[in-house]
Design goal:
α1 packs antiparallel against α2, α1 packs parallel to α3 and α4 packs antiparallel against α5. It is elongated, with a radius of gyration of 22 Å. The longest helix has about 40 residues. It has a single domain, classed as Serine Threonine Protein Phosphatase 5, Tetratricopeptide repeat. By secondary structure, it is mostly helical.
Amino acid sequence: MVGNPNAMTLSKRGELLLKMKRPKAAISDATAALKKNPDSAKALKLRGKAHRFLSMWAEAVTDFAACQQIDYDDDIADMHKYCTKRKVWHEKMAVRKAKHEAEAAKEGYNGESAPEAK
């Protein structure tokens, strides 16, 4: 980067990138801002929003939780609650899918008959 921008500048640029629907670039800027200032609530909030945009629920929940510990915000609390619900739902669906696939594999293996030799 040219000019060695500070954490606030990176966060503001990340917000603009997110508005332009470029969440991966916003995550990159927020991560760079957090490297310069690990206690930046603005960068954590931005990265959480970008993760939410990409349906990366676990990462969004982690970022929103850290952001809320630094600087509580009611709007972020609502997003954090929503992302937590989505994360739990996706985890349940992944367990259900794995269980279903295991049962299908077991039935397919046991249900097959061996070819008979003549």
